[in-house]
């Protein structure tokens, strides 16, 4: 949704750019809220604007529900527990100001991993594919993120991004996209924190005090070496960013074949 110099007045009819702008203004004119059950960036810093062009915000009306990641012009990957149909906002940095880089799509057909069961304490296979009503237009601010060809090893440096809760109690839900550098934690170390709850389909990262994904970041990307290695899935019941307690992510390297089959067949 770039704003070309000298643009002419236009009528607003869906799915024209004008309609997207009208919808965006309607959405950003209201406060965005978050549900308590979603997982969560804590103590992050503002991302370099549009440095995460794959970042997606999933909205129900004016309410930010989850994050997501663009992996194809027509497909977004998010957490399975982010169920529902959404307005998908791409090319965003500020959620309240129009940057003329935004694109808005409606999610339609979706596929949740067939082995996902959900429920309390059951987070295995926590991923879901959303097909957009119309493909995105690739720009500097809207680009898909590559899937991995191998799993990330413990100690790998990665980063996460999202609009979830920060450490600022007077402004808990940030307007600007937040980024945070974290590292992959070994499976053994993660099992010690969450005994019996970590499967081969999960990867853990973080664990430094005050640095974590937090409320509102579910389904957002864990990016390592320029590829997607995880989706924000779950964490401790207590406050975000507790020392020694990593966040838990869906391990995308285990699902590349399934993701590609769904896209190919739909």
Key terms:
six-stranded antiparallel β-barrel, disordered N terminus, 13 strands, mainly beta, 266 residues, six-stranded antiparallel beta barrel, 3 helices, single chain
Q: Mind explaining what this structure looks like?
A:
The chain has 266 residues and is mainly beta. 11% of the residues lie in helices and 29% in strands. The protein has 3 helices and 13 strands; from the N terminus they run αβββββββββαββββα. It has helices spanning 17-28, 187-193, 256-265, and strands spanning 45-46, 55-60, 63-72, 75-78, 87-90, 103-112, 128-132, 157-162, 178-185, 202-205, 221-224, 227-234, 247-251. A 6-stranded antiparallel β-barrel has the order 8-9-10-13-12-11. Strands 2-3-4-7-6-5 form a 6-stranded antiparallel beta barrel. Strand 3 (63-72) and strand 4 form a beta hairpin. The longest helix is centred in the first third of the chain and has 12 residues, at 17-28. The protein is globular and about 45 Å long. The two termini are 27 Å apart. The model is unreliable at 1-40 and 167-171 (pLDDT under 50).
Q: What is the C-alpha radius of gyration, as a whole number of Å?
A: 18 Å
The percentage helix is 10-25%
In DSSP terms (H or I, runs of 4 or more residues), the helix count works out at 3
How would a textbook summarize the main sheet? 6 strands, antiparallel, barrel
SSE pattern: HEEEEEEEEEHEEEEH
Query: N-to-C terminal Cα separation, in Å?
Result: 27 Å
Number of strands: 13
Task: Provide a concise account of the structure shown.
The chain is mostly beta strands. The protein has helices spanning 17-28, 187-193, 256-265; strands at residues 45-46, 55-60, 63-72, 75-78, 87-90, 103-112, 128-132, 157-162, 178-185, 202-205, 221-224, 227-234, 247-251.
